[in-house]
Write a structure and sequence with these properties.
By secondary structure, the protein is α/β, with parallel strands linked by helices. It has a single domain, classed as NAD(P)-binding Rossmann-like Domain (Rossmann fold, 3-Layer(aba) Sandwich), CATH 3.40.50.720. The protein is built from nine helices and seven strands; from the N terminus they run βαβαβαβαβαβααβαα. Helix 1 links the parallel strand 1 and strand 2. Helix 1 crosses helix 7.
Amino acid sequence: MDSFSNDNSGKKFCLITGSGNGLGFELAKVFAQNGYPLVLIDKDEDGLKNVEKTLKLKYDTSIITITQDLCKKNAALKIFKILEELEIKPEILINNAGFGYFGFFAESKWQRQEDLIRLSVLANTHLISLLVPDMISNKHGRILNVASLAAFLPGPLMSVYHASKAFILSFSQALSNELKGTGVKVTVLCPGMMDTKFQKTNNNESPKLKWTVGSPEKVATYCYKKMMKDKVVVIPGVMNKIAAYLPRILPRNFATFIVRKIQENNRVNFKPSTSK
């Protein structure tokens, strides 16, 4: 059962999708520490309950949980209608929910690829379109879109995931420009690999290149500081910043070849394609 409050008008809520674990949970902690009441959204009801319980033990702030699978059609609209009923107009929107899908596109399950696109592209963008008018009207608001280091390069073996993150990066930068002078700020976070459930879901639970794996807690803290300083593109970690810069100086085909090799060599159980 979702937990709702009846006295929400006027509160400066921070809405975070994908907040049942991992980076979303860490972002929730950071914003709770800084006094923000929270709207936490995830498809994992048990995960949300655990997060809510953990945060309430440490922080004196309002927490509302909404169980919603953002891969479903009209998920953003359903969330928006609940917010209207609760008289909540979030001051901060964090589009964090996402997942990866590893494998050759020609051999992939289309339903999973469609879910990935529906979540990373459609749901995130729709939620912004529903919430940003009130932010503009209030002349204040923040939007954080969680992309990835993957946004800077095509990614063989995770082709749709990389493309979806490239969309998020490009859209966020363009939206930031459009919203100049409105009081609404847009930030896009582009982290590298993190020690979360994400790796397990995309067949990379034990990556060989462990030096590339970062802490979601540190990423969340770093992101908050940069976001509050109105930074548009946030890339945590020196090595990640270098990796994001390389596509500017390397031929694109060669950079794509490197990503392919990293994808193959970073997995313990990678198997070549069986396609003829």
